[in-house]
Amino acid sequence: MTRRDYTNAEGYICPTENSAVRNVDRGYTAVYTAPVKPPKTKVLKQKQAPPPPKPKDENLKRARQFFCVLTSIAGMMDFTIADITLKCKGDPSRYRTIGEKQTIERAEP
Q1: pLDDT (0 to 100) of residue 81
Q2: Closest CA to 105 of 74, 59, 69
Q3: 65 and 26, same structural domain?
Q4: Residue 47 counted as domain residue
């Protein structure tokens, strides 16, 4: 075989093309089996009603923001806030820290 037999149309030697041509000349064919997927079965599920939306609690949002400000100021002075209860004017609910995460939640009166 000459050099021309080993080069592609542009004149470069390409081992991948050479092996492909050699396999075709020998009568070798690659066998590829695609993975078989199981047939899709449609299961009808009953639609569940979405959970009711939580009422917006603007006072809770403001209490959390205020708590964030207080803890930031306390941190600058090397203090921590262990327990705090906040009350908004005109709202009978109290907001206090709950759990280890120190998040503000509504405490029912």
Answers
A1: 86
A2: 59
A3: no
A4: no
Could you list the residue range(s) of the whole structural domain that residue 10 is in? Answer: 1-30
**Closest of 38, 74, 58 to residue 106, by C-alpha:** 58
C-alpha–C-alpha distance, residues 89 and 93, integer Å? 10
Reading the block at residue 44, the tokens are 């009808």
Residue 10 lies in a domain: yes
Nearest to 71 by CA among 63, 62, 80: 80
Q: Is 68 strand, coil or helix?
A: helix
Question: Token pair of 52, please?
Answer: 């009711």
| Average of per-residue pLDDT values in the chain | 79
Q: Distance between CA atoms of 6 and 62, rounded to whole angstroms?
A: 77
More confident residue, 66 or 27: 66
